[in-house]
Design goal:
single chain; Rossmann fold; 7 strands; 2 domains
Length: about 350
């Protein structure tokens, strides 16, 4: 499947998120398994792709996730400033507020964070993050996180990878590439990033949009909803805490460095999460409503294999009114890998259930 990066709403590109569903696939699922005005639920919202596509297509959107990074991205996409001028004004005000703060003492910043930035860049980034953490500034924080690390000139860090943060100082040694280790000003880069975010901006209207920061076991879904479309965390394949550790630290420095949802680590936790969700679907999904799971597999197995098999088997007990109608498969090409040596998720299964 071809890249949708040059066609999708650029709100999808605020900041990278490992394992996120492609916007074109999310859009197709929303169109096929819901209709305008429907309430679409995504309890594993991740990058907020499905809630945003739902809102853009005239659906009401309800998203949730356990990750603070997911909350930032989802809120930024569902509630952006109405126009580019509004967004630029809000950014300028935040930059002025950050500049008025006293210079932070970098000795209180962990060494592993300091290793990514020129000291002057880091001071600007720390002060801006202080402002961006305030409620209502999720759009500013998302754009800031989107330029936090990369080797390109428009980003803030020393040369590093874009998705999973690690320094690329061996490929770009300081003595050979001194310009890549110089001070990088925050203001111009952030304003340019905000402008890119509005390159293909679409208003999502003002229909119901909500996001809850909650594990699925404690999540209270709407009493009645029309469709559930979601991509559960990839069990044993991805480590969301490690892979987002630098962005998570700027979101909240008090977070542990290994912030993760154990749903991604243990079969029992994954089963418990799907079971809990199944019970909620059984009571909340309208009759004839669809429930779609996009499930990642580490190898190109049959749909009956683990972890797709876990979802199918668990829902037979937790949501007996759901009937599996079809299974679709999308093989992920190596070019979409986020890991070296092409390790990670190889295949996605689309499990389409319908409530009798």
């Amino acid at each position: 499947m071809e890249s949708c990066a040059n066609d999708e709403c650029t709100l999808h590109q605020l900041s990278p998120y490992i394992g996120k569903i492609k916007s074109s696939i999310a859009g197709d699922l929303v169109r096929k398994y819901s209709k305008p005005g429907d309430l679409v639920v995504d309890p594993f919202a991740g990058a907020g792709t499905i809630p945003l596509e739902s809102a853009l297509q005239g659906r009401r959107a309800f998203g949730a996730d356990i990750s603070p990074y997911s909350r930032i991205l989802s809120m930024a996409k569902l509630f952006p400033p109405n126009s580019l001028p509004d967004a630029l004004r809000k950014t300028e005000v935040a930059l002025l507020g950050a500049a008025a703060l006293p210079a932070p003492d970098l000795r209180s910043t962990p060494l592993w964070v300091r290793q990514f930035f020129h000291p002057d860049t880091l001071r600007e980034a720390l002060n801006f993050a202080t402002i961006a953490r305030r409620p209502g500034n999720e759009f500013l924080m998302a754009n800031f996180l989107g330029i936090l690390h990369h080797q390109r000139p428009g980003f803030l860090s020393y040369p590093s990878s874009h998705l999973v943060p690690y320094l690329r100082d061996k490929k770009y040694p300081r003595e050979d590439f001194p310009e890549m280790y110089e001070y990088r000003e925050l203001k111009s880069r952030l304003l340019a990033k905000v402008q890119r975010s509005y390159k293909r901006f679409e208003s999502a209207g003002r229909k119901l949009r909500r996001f809850n920061l909650s594990p699925v076991q404690q999540l209270e879904l709407p009493k009645r909803f029309d469709a559930l479309i979601t991509s559960p965390p990839y069990m044993n394949a991805l480590d969301y805490g490690r892979d987002n550790r630098l962005r998570l630290w700027f979101i909240d420095p008090t977070l542990a460095e290994d912030v993760d949802n154990d749903v991604t680590q243990r079969r029992k936790a994954f089963v418990d999460a799907i079971s809990s969700l199944g019970h909620k679907v059984e009571t909340g999904l309208r009759k004839e409503g669809y429930c779609v799971f996009v499930v990642g597999e580490e190898t190109a197995r049959r749909s009956e294999s683990h972890p797709s098999e876990v979802v199918v088997t668990t829902l037979k007990t937790a949501a007996p009114s759901l009937k599996l109608k079809k299974v679709l498969t999308d093989n992920i090409p190596d070019i979409r890998r986020t890991r070296r040596e092409c390790k990670g998720v190889k295949t996605e299964h689309f499990l389409v259930f319908k409530r009798n």
